[in-house]
Design goal:
It is a single chain. Helices cover 38% and strands 7% of the residues. The protein starts with a strand and ends with a helix. It is built from 7 helices and 3 strands. By secondary structure, it is mainly α. It has a 3-stranded antiparallel beta sheet with strand order 2-1-3. 25% of the residues are buried. The protein has 2 domains: 2-106, D-Maltodextrin-Binding Protein, domain 2 (3-Layer(aba) Sandwich); 117-165, no CATH class. It has helices at residues 34-48, 52-58, 73-78, 89-98, 129-139, 142-150, 158-162, and strands spanning 2-5, 84-86, 103-106.
């Protein structure tokens, strides 16, 4: 998704707008945060073409976080330093719900929209194996799924959560 200021003052409707000269883009630095950048760039490339992310990087008014990391991008929008930022859906959804007077977002098509998947494992030699096992058990619970769902994450089904390998 594309995070924008409330009211979408630049009338951003999709990826092509990121290339407009009057649109300032905030995105993770490929040097400081390569994993975060690649997550966003995968969607940009899949939906905008192989060179799309690099074209955004070359714009003179593209900004990169310097002090913290990609979570600075909403601050850039809030401060008026940037107009748009590719953003993980759950983060944009949270900002829109919690601060609707400051943030909105433009949804991107599902096709080609990169999705990250996380996995959980308990190490054989975990220093606090009991705590690790308890955490893993909680993460398999309906309670954990409900929390993740409430904040915009997809969560695996109960049968998938109970699978042990």
């Amino acid at each position: 998704m594309l995070l924008v200021a409330a009211g979408n003052p630049k009338n951003i409707r999709g990826l092509d707008d990121l290339l407009r000269e009057d649109v300032r883009v905030a995105i993770s630095s490929p040097k400081r945060e390569p994993a975060s950048f690649e997550s966003y760039a995968a969607t940009l490339r899949a939906q905008g073409g192989a060179e799309f992310a690099e074209r955004v990087l070359k714009k003179p008014n593209t900004v990169f976080p310097a002090a913290v990391h990609h979570r600075e991008n909403p601050q850039f929008i809030y401060d008026g330093v940037a107009d748009v930022a590719p953003m993980y859906f759950h983060f944009g959804e949270y900002l829109k719900k919690q601060m609707p007077q400051h943030f909105d977002y433009v949804a991107l098509p599902a096709e080609g929209n990169a999705r990250d998947e996380l996995a959980l494992a308990v190490l054989n030699r975990a220093p606090r194996r009991g705590a690790a096992a308890a955490w893993a058990e909680f993460m398999r619970s309906d309670s954990a799924a409900a929390i993740y769902n409430r904040f915009g994450f997809d969560y695996v089904t109960a049968s998938e959560r109970s699978r042990r390998e």
